[in-house]
Amino acid sequence: MFKPHSIAGALALLGTLWKALGACAATLVVVVQLPDGKPLSGAIVTVHQSGAERPAAPVSAIMDQIDRTFVPDLLVIPMGSTVEFPNSDSVSHQIYSFSPAHKFQLPLYRGKPYPPVRFEQPGLVTLGCNIHDSMLAYVLVTDAQYFGRTDATGSWTAEVPRGTYRVSVWHPRMHEDSELERQLMIGEGDRAALTLRLARPLQPAPLGAHHSWDTY
Q1: Are 171 and 44 within 8 A, CB to CB?
Q2: What would the mean pLDDT of 124-131 be, rounded to a whole number?
Q3: Taking the C-alpha atoms of 212, 55, 120 and 181 in order, what is their torsion angle to the nearest 10 degrees?
Q4: What string of DSSP letters covers 24-57?
C-alpha cells in the first residue's frame, strides 16, 4: 500500500515534469502581409531550427489532375516524401519537371498508372503538362523542421520548442529577387509572433489560366 507521503511525492514529481514539458514549447504565430498591410493567404512558411539536424518526417501526398488543372496546384513537403500524380481528368496528360531539385517525366496517361514520385532533394519543383501549356503547379521540398501555408488571415501557427529559428516565406507570385526571411529567438513566454510584410507587390497573374495563387 502506498503511503501518503509517497503519493504526495509522486504528484509533486508529475507536476514538475508537466511544468518542464510546458516550458519547452511555445506557440509560434507567423503573419504574412502584402505591402499595403492586407493578409497574404496561401503563402508557404518554412521554419528552420538552429542546431536541429533532422527535418520533418517524410509524408505521402497526392496531386491530382482535374479539369486541366493540378489539384492542389501547390504542395510543401519534407525531403524524402512521395507524391502520387493520378489523372482523374477526361483527357490524358503528360507531367514533367525540368527543375534542378528533381527532373522527371510521366509519359502520356490517364487514371493511375505510375508509382509515387519520391523527392529526395530540397528545392522548388515546377510542374507542367506537355499537352496543356496552361497547367502549372509547384512542389516545394523542404528540409525545415516546421512548415505550412498561411490561412485567409495571412497567419500560420505551430507549436515549437524554445530556441533560435530562421523563418522564410515563399509565394508563386513573389518576385524572384525578393527574399522574405527573418531570424527569431523564442525564449521566455508561451507565445511568439512575427509579422512579415512584402516590400514589393506580387507579380501580375498570368492571363488565360487560373491558379489558387491568382486571387490578388
Answers
A1: yes
A2: 96
A3: 50
A4: TEEEEEEEEE-TTS-B-TT-EEEEEETT----PP
Q: Amino acid identity, residue 189?
A: G
Give the integer Cα–Cα distance in Å for 183 and 194. Answer: 10
pLDDT category at 24 given cuts 50, 70, 90 is: low
Tens digit of each residue's pLDDT (9 = 90 or more) over 85-113 = 999 999 999 999 999 999 999 999 999 88
Residue with cell 515534469: 17
b/e code 67-96 from CB counts within 10 Å (16+ = b): eebbeebbbbbbbbbebebbbebeeebbbb
Judged against a pLDDT cut of 80, whether residue 84 lies above it is answered with yes
> Are β-strands 44-49 and 163-170 bridged in parallel, bridged antiparallel, or unpaired?
antiparallel
How far is it, in rounded angstroms, from Cα 92 to Cα 212?
A: 22
* Residue 201, number of CB atoms within 10 A of its CB: 13
* φ, ψ of residue 159 in degrees (nearest 5): -95, 120
Percent of the chain topping pLDDT 70: 89
C-beta of residue 150 within 8 angstroms of C-beta of residue 170: no
Contact 150, 32 (CB under 8 A): yes
User: What would the mean pLDDT of 208-212 be, rounded to a whole number?
Assistant: 80
CA 128-130-131 angle, to 5 degrees, is: 115
162/64 Cα distance (integer angstroms): 38
